[in-house]
Amino acid sequence: MRYAVIIILTQTFIFQILKDGLNYASPFVLMGIRTLIASFLLFGVARRFRPIVNRDTILLSLFTFTATSFWAYGLEFVSPADSAVLTYTMPLFSIPLSCVILSEKATIGEWGGAVIGFVGVLVYSSALANQSLTMFGGILTLLNAFFSATFIVYFRKLKNQDPTITVATQLLFVAVFLLVLAPLDYKLTVTPNFLFDVAYLSVLGGAGFMVLWNAIVRLRKIGKTTTLVYLIPVTATLVQTVQTSVIPGIVPLIGLALMIFGLYLSNGTLPLRVNTKRLRAEISRSPSTA
After folding, report:
1. How far apart are CA 111 and CA 87, in angstroms?
2. How far is CA 225 from CA 171, 186, 218, 266, in A?
3. Measured between alpha carbons, how far is 218 from 279 in angstroms, rounded to an integer?
4. How far apart are the first and last CA of the chain?
5. Quick check: 25 and 202 in contact, CB under 8 A?
6. C-alpha–C-alpha distance, residues 118 and 233, integer Å
7. Which of 43, 159, 203, 265 lies 20 to 30 angstroms, CA to CA, from 283?
8. Which residues pair with 25 in a beta bridge?
9. Domains of the chain by residue range
10. Is 79 left (phi over 0), alpha (psi -120 to 50) or beta?
């Protein structure tokens, strides 16, 4: 099974679903509910409620909380496709962070692919230059990208911990942080659409995505793995084009092409296949085998 394709597809739609969910709940409320459900789901899968409390896991949670907050608030000012593009400037941040935090050396190809992909992001987002509100949302979303890169690097740093319990603990702490702040900006209207949005964000876009991402990062270098996300803004833009029947202009298309080329350069191919047996082993690994 092509797990990388599953990640790309679920994250392609997550931007639109989160955007819709913000019609019914404020960012802290929506994301707090999402992470709490995802956390309890993973503790249920692990069949034990035993959070991991140590310095690095708490830092992982803080980075995730910060990224989540900037992502949700940024989406109030930008479209789902723009959010996807700006969020996935992440590889440019993750490679130097992996050098500092993990002492992991990146190859020239990995650096080149990340830089070219980032240039593609800049080219794409240049069309937003005259939209002040969108640019404000863009800044928030870029901050999300930085902190997302940080917590993904920490996934690899914590590869000797139980992966399911690590993610469950991470999401539990994030939920607590978010729900404590929820009264500062409280809005909640429960409708069938809201329940669908929460279910998707919690299960596929929350627990499932985090566990798969955690497992894949354990198997491949940060420089090669994170550039995979350049396919997400491409597919998000394609979906938005189909829905709105508005074809992106030549400048955004050039930007998207550069992102795809950056992905190819950093991997030597388009890495859509992941070793299924090794990935399953990483997901199901227990503390005793870590």
Report:
1. 18
2. 22, 37, 10, 9
3. 9
4. 24
5. no
6. 12
7. 265
8. 188
9. 3-272
10. beta
* Both structure tokens of 81: 């496709």
How buried is residue 184: exposed, middle or buried, by Cβ count under 10 Å (0-12/13-18/19+)? exposed
Residue type, position 32, single letter:
G
Q: How many residues does the chain have?
A: 290
Task: Read off the amino acid at residue 83.
Answer: S
3-state SS string for the chain: CCHHHHHHHHHHHHHHHHHHHCCCECHHHHHHHHHHHHHHHHHHHHCCCCCCCCHHHHHHHHHHHHHHHHHHHHCCCCCHHHHHHHHCCHHHHHHHHHHHHHCCCCCHHHHHHHHHHHHHHHHHHHHHCCCHHHHHHHHHHHHHHHHHHHHHHHHHHCCCCCHHHHHHHHHHHHHHHHHHHHHHHCCECCCHHHHHHHHHHHHHHHHHHHHHHHHHHHHCCHHHHHHHHHHHHHHHHHHHHHHHCCCCCHHHHHHHHHHHHHHHHHHCCCCCCCCHHHHHHHHHCCCCCC
